[in-house]
Amino acid sequence: MGRTGKLFAVDHVGVTPDIMTLGKAFGGGVAPIATIAAIHTTLEEEVPQIVAAKGECFIKHLLAIQSRHSDVLTMVRGRGR
């Protein structure tokens, strides 16, 4: 949840799913947690926006490295790339 720069990855493609399962996103598949608190914290701390900004910065730097070392770093991809 929030790892792609949007709250849910489906938000990148502009579709509305009929149903979504979120168990792993909330508890990592390991332990039950307070789901409503997790959603509020994710939104209040603007996690998706922070992830999007860091992702852009990271890709920018990887592309710079790739331009100097294309023999080693052959491909740089991110969400939507």
From TrEMBL:
Single annotated GO MF: transaminase activity
Keywords: Aminotransferase, Pyridoxal phosphate, Transferase
One matching Pfam family: Aminotran_3
Swiss-Prot/TrEMBL cofactor(s): pyridoxal 5'-phosphate
Keyword Magnesium listed: no
Taxonomic superkingdom: Bacteria
Keyword Transferase on entry: yes
PANTHER family, A to Z: ACETYLORNITHINE AMINOTRANSFERASE, MITOCHONDRIAL, AMINOTRANSFERASE CLASS III
Designated name of the protein: Aminotransferase class I/classII domain-containing protein
